[in-house]
Write a structure and sequence with these properties.
Radius of gyration: 22 Å
Strand order of the largest sheet: 1-2
Helix content: 55-70%
CATH topology of the largest domain: Multidrug-efflux Transporter Regulator, Chain: A, Domain 2
Number of strands: 4
Largest sheet: 2 strands, antiparallel
Distance between the termini: 44 Å
CATH class of the largest domain: Mainly Alpha
Structural class: mainly alpha
Strand content: under 5%
Shape: globular
Length: 247
C-alpha cells in the first residue's frame, strides 16, 4: 500500500502544491512495495513517457499522487506480468479511455524450463523486452551489458530482444558484481548451465519426437522436473563445498 502524504492548507492550487512530491519522496513511498526501485529507474520511465510529472520554474520534478499511483501500476506490470513498456503504455492509455483491457496471466516464479522447448507455431511466444528496458531493469549501463554479452552471460533472442528470464539473469549478475565477482569469474557458471541444459535435452529428446501428443507433453513435464532437480543439486553441492572449506 502506497503511503499518501497528508497536510496542506487552502484550496485549489495551494492544495495541489501541498500534495506534490519530490522524486526523493516518491522513491520512499514506492520502496515499501518495490525495494529495488531507484531514482534512475523513475527518470527512465519518465523519459519513456510512462509518467509526466510537472516541473517547477527551476526544473525540479513535482509528482502528484496520481503520478505516484501510475508509477506503481507500471512497476507492478513489469514485476508481475513481464510486460514491455510499449504494452504497459497501451494498457494505461486504454484504462484512461475507460476501457477494461485484460493483462496476461501473472508470470510469478515461472518454471525453469519455460520457453526452452518451443516446438512450433502453436507454442505461445515468450514475452520479449528491448535493450533499453533490460538496462533499466538491471540498473546498469551499455558498457556493462556489452561486457556481459561478450562473456555469454546475456544472450539476445534470435529474432531480437530478450526474454523475461534474462532480466533475472542480469539482476543476479549485477548483484554478484557488487561482491567483486566479475563476468570472467562467472563464465564457468554459464558453461555449467549449458552442459546441464544439454544433458536434459538428451533425456527428453526421444519423447519430444514422439507422435503421441501426450508423450510430447510428458517431455515438457520431465524437462521441468529435471531442471528443478538440477538447480537443487547445484545449490546443495555449493553449500556442501562451502561447509568443507569454511569449517
Amino acid at each position: 500500500m502506497l503511503r499518501t502524504p497528508t497536510g496542506g492548507a487552502g484550496h485549489g492550487t495551494a492544495t495541489a502544491d501541498a500534495r506534490s512530491m519530490s522524486i526523493g519522496t516518491v522513491l520512499l513511498q514506492l520502496r515499501d512495495e518495490f525495494p529495488e526501485v531507484t531514482i534512475s529507474k523513475i527518470r527512465f520511465l519518465e523519459a519513456e513517457g510512462l509518467i509526466e510529472p510537472q516541473r517547477t520554474p527551476s526544473g525540479y520534478r513535482k509528482f502528484s499522487p496520481g503520478d505516484v499511483e501510475r508509477l506503481a501500476q507500471v512497476l507492478r506490470m513489469q514485476r508481475d506480468h513481464y510486460l514491455p513498456l510499449k504494452v504497459i503504455r497501451g494498457h494505461l492509455d486504454a484504462l484512461a479511455r475507460g476501457e477494461q483491457p485484460v493483462l496476461p496471466t501473472p508470470g510469478g516464479q515461472r518454471d525453469l524450463s519455460d520457453g526452452l522447448w518451443d516446438s512450433g507455431p502453436s507454442t505461445p511466444t515468450a514475452v520479449r523486452i528491448g535493450r533499453a528496458e533490460l538496462l533499466a531493469a538491471a540498473e546498469v549501463g551499455e558498457e556493462q551489458l556489452d561486457e556481459w554479452e561478450s562473456y555469454g552471460l546475456i544472450v539476445a533472442m534470435p529474432e531480437g530482444g530478450y526474454d523475461a528470464e534474462t532480466v533475472t539473469v542480469a539482476r543476479l549478475v549485477a548483484d554478484l558484481g557488487r561482491f567483486g565477482l566479475e563476468p570472467r569469474h562467472l563464465r564457468a557458471m554459464r558453461a555449467a548451465a549449458d552442459r546441464e541444459a544439454g544433458l536434459i535435452e538428451q533425456v527428453v529428446a526421444p519423447l519430444r519426437r514422439h507422435r503421441n501428443p501426450q508423450t510430447r507433453a510428458h517431455a515438457e513435464a520431465t524437462a521441468t522436473e529435471l531442471a528443478e532437480l538440477s538447480v537443487r543439486l547445484h545449490a546443495a553441492l555449493v553449500q556442501t563445498a562451502l561447509q568443507v572449506r569454511l569449517h
